[in-house]
Structures are given as structure tokens and as C-alpha cells.
């Protein structure tokens, strides 16, 4: 069974505006590690929001593990950290536990702040502890998220996505505010969990994509998928409309 099956997906934000996504098709197997690339405004985040059920589907279909999205809650989502309201006076553990709400109620429910406050079960607490250990933030559990570095916050958001026990993990520019060494560490970890979790990651770092992704989906209103070996500087330049200066040495 496909992890993700998108057929003829078209989306426009207003009835009279041109489609942001047009006739998008994507079939993803469970063991894949797919990088989404494309220019700003190409529609990558919109595609994630449609998969998560945060935007209503207008035309086309999205199936997750054979079920129409968004009924399936087995998706972990790591948003861009700059969009996370880090001024909230809450601890790392509380942020990670929020992922349990998503696991139980879906992402739409999670987005309603009044749902954030509930009693967590023993199992919720145990799962949060486990993922905080795996992502190396257990020592930060009681710390306020207001006092974290960019890299620490990234790991908290990753832990929050993983505590849902996802079969599919969506990451929106997870390397945006971390250094090159931490980027590699994060992608090594993603590669490790990819044995059990299907991964879709929005990323502009061509070297990382080259080294870790199994396929590359170029999103610019339409979507074209390429095997990793087909990615060349010319293709990337064509997609972005300009050359990128961090191409892998051996992709020329
Ligand atoms: N809520 C919204 N209302 C109207 N238009 C929107 C909305 N959100 C996004 N758009 C528009 O939809 C298009 C696609 O945006 P989207 O954020 O999906 O692109 P992206 O590929 O993720 O871009 P980036 O790389 O800059 O994050 C853009 O033209 C954007 O201005």
C-alpha cells in the first residue's frame, strides 16, 4: 500500500486567483525519503497543509495509507521553527506533549489553542520522555522554550512530531536556523528513522538532498519527481530560475 497517494490535486487560495498547485500527482512508498525543492512561493508549504488537512481539498484526492486525508492521524509534522510562537511561557516537555493531542485528534484540532490544555495520560508522558531522550533534549525538559537556541528549538519541534508515533513525517525546512554540522546530524538521524518512517522534507540544501534523499520532488505550481541520480545543477537552476551556489561537487 502506498504511504501517500496524491492524484490531480489543484488548489487556489481564492476562487478568482490562479492555482497555487495545479494537477499535482505524487505516489510515495513507505521506505522513501523525499526532498521537496522549488522557488519561494512554489507551493511546497501549501502541499503540506493539504496533506495535513489544514486546508480543505478543492479538486483531486489525497490518500494516506489507503484512507482519504485528513482522517488518518499518523502524520508527524515539523513546521518551520520561525513560525512557532516561542514567546509562549511553556516548557520543552509541554511542547513535546502537544504532539500527543495531534496523535489523538488530528492536526486541525491541534491548531485550536483551547485544545492545548488537557490532562496527559501516563502513556503520553512515557512517550514524550522516550522521544526527548532519542532527540537528545531530555536535559532541557523543564526549560522554557523562550530560552532555547535555534538548534534546540528544532529538536523540540522534531520531538513533538515524533511523539505522535508517525508513519509519515513532514518537515518544513528543518535546517533553516541551524549550522552545517547540526544539519548533517539531523539528516543522519532522519536517515536512521527512515527505516520505519516515510519522510518528506522541504529543503533547499542541494548537498544534503544529494546525500540523503531517495527522490526529489520539484514543486513550482506543478510537481515533477526525479530520482536522486537525475539531479543536476542545470535541473536545479531551471527549477529555481537561478543557479544555486551549494551544489554537490560530484553532481556536475
Ligand atoms: N493564506 C494564503 N492566502 C493567500 N495566498 C497564499 C496563502 N498562503 C500562501 N499563499 C500564496 O500561495 C503561494 C504558495 O505559497 P507557499 O507558502 O505554499 O509556497 P512555498 O513553496 O512553501 O514558499 P517558501 O519556499 O517561500 O516557503 C504563494 O504565492 C503565496 O503567496
Explain what this protein looks like in three dimensions:
The structure is a single chain. It is globular, with a radius of gyration of 18 Å. The chain is an alpha/beta fold. It is built from 8 helices and 10 strands. It has 2 domains: 160 residues, P-loop containing nucleotide triphosphate hydrolases (Rossmann fold, 3-Layer(aba) Sandwich); 83 residues, no CATH class. Helix content is 33%, strand content 22%. Helix 2 crosses helix 4, helix 2 runs parallel beside helix 5 and helix 4 crosses helix 5. It has a 6-stranded mixed sheet with strand order 6-7-8-3-9-10. Strands 2-1-4-5 form a 4-stranded antiparallel sheet, with helices on one face. Bound molecules: adenosine-5'-triphosphate (ATP).
Describe the secondary structure blueprint for this structure.
Blueprint: E1 4-11, E2 21-28, E3 33-37, H1 44-52, E4 59-64, E5 67-68, E6 75-78, H2 92-105, H3 107-110, H4 122-134, H5 150-162, E7 168-172, H6 180-193, E8 198-202, H7 206-212, E9 215-220, E10 222-227, H8 233-240
Parallel strand pairs: 3-8, 3-9, 6-7, 7-8
Antiparallel strand pairs: 1-2, 1-4, 4-5, 9-10
Helix pairs in contact: 2-4, 2-5, 4-5
By CATH reckoning, the class of the largest domain would read: Alpha Beta
| Relative strand content | 15-25%
Radius of gyration, whole Å: 18 Å
CATH superfamily of the largest domain: P-loop containing nucleotide triphosphate hydrolases
Q: How many distinct beta strands? A: 10
Determine the structural class based on helices, strands and strand pairing.
Answer: alpha/beta
CATH architecture label name of the largest domain: 3-Layer(aba) Sandwich
Q: Which sequence of SSEs, written as H and E, runs from N to C?
A: EEEHEEEHHHHEHEHEEH
**Largest beta sheet, briefly?**
6 strands, mixed
Task: Look up the CATH topology of the largest domain.
Answer: Rossmann fold
Q: Report strand order across the widest sheet.
A: 6-7-8-3-9-10
Which overall shape is indicated by the principal axes computed on the Cα atoms?
globular
Helix content range: 25-40%
Distance separating the two termini: 36 Å
Mean pLDDT figure: 85
* Uncertain residue ranges: 246-252
Bound molecules: adenosine-5'-triphosphate
State the oligomer: single chain
Number of domains: 2
Secondary structure tally, helices: 8
